[in-house]
């Protein structure tokens, strides 16, 4: 998986890293149980501070997307489940995206088609 960061973006680097790893899992580019690069390796590859990668991994661990072992490193979680907290977060983000789409003139059918198209690009083996 190739990590591409936009250092000029208002989105913090650790959030960009988190989002790209989640997309990689969703698309099947990162498989359940797959070992992730060490904090140092990913920091070196991405050209960022190790603390940035460490923060990213801590967030991914808290969200249940990865598991960590002090001796073995970080791995994509085997079982990623939707809990009530995730469901509420997803609903809130979809509400915001829906509002933005509506405000900018996108109709419901176009928005749903876009959602369906993007969702169809995810690897069904990870769902």
Automatic annotation (TrEMBL):
<keyword id="KW-0238">DNA-binding</keyword>
<dbReference type="InterPro" id="IPR036388">
    <property type="entry name" value="WH-like_DNA-bd_sf"/>
</dbReference>
<feature type="domain" description="HTH gntR-type">
    <location>
        <begin position="11"/>
        <end position="79"/>
    </location>
</feature>
<keyword id="KW-0808">Transferase</keyword>
<keyword id="KW-0032">Aminotransferase</keyword>
<keyword id="KW-0805">Transcription regulation</keyword>
<protein>
    <submittedName>
        <fullName>GntR family transcriptional regulator / MocR family aminotransferase</fullName>
    </submittedName>
</protein>
<dbReference type="Pfam" id="PF00392">
    <property type="entry name" value="GntR"/>
</dbReference>
<dbReference type="GO" id="GO:0003677">
    <property type="term" value="F:DNA binding"/>
</dbReference>
<dbReference type="GO" id="GO:0008483">
    <property type="term" value="F:transaminase activity"/>
</dbReference>
<dbReference type="InterPro" id="IPR036390">
    <property type="entry name" value="WH_DNA-bd_sf"/>
</dbReference>
<dbReference type="InterPro" id="IPR000524">
    <property type="entry name" value="Tscrpt_reg_HTH_GntR"/>
</dbReference>
<keyword id="KW-0804">Transcription</keyword>
<dbReference type="GO" id="GO:0003700">
    <property type="term" value="F:DNA-binding transcription factor activity"/>
</dbReference>
């Amino acid at each position: 998986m190739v990590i591409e960061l936009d250092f000029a973006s208002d989105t913090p680097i650790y959030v960009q890293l988190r989002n790209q790893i989640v997309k990689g899992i969703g698309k099947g580019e990162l498989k359940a149980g797959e070992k992730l690069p060490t904090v140092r390796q990913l920091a070196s590859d991405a050209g960022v501070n190790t603390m940035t990668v460490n923060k990213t991994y801590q967030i991914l661990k808290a969200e249940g997307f990865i598991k960590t072992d002090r001796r073995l490193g970080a791995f994509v979680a085997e079982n990623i489940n939707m809990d009530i907290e995730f469901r509420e977060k997803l609903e809130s983000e979809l509400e915001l995206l829906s509002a933005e789409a509506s405000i900018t003139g996108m109709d419901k059918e176009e928005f749903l088609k876009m959602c369906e198209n993007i969702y169809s690009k995810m690897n069904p083996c990870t769902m």
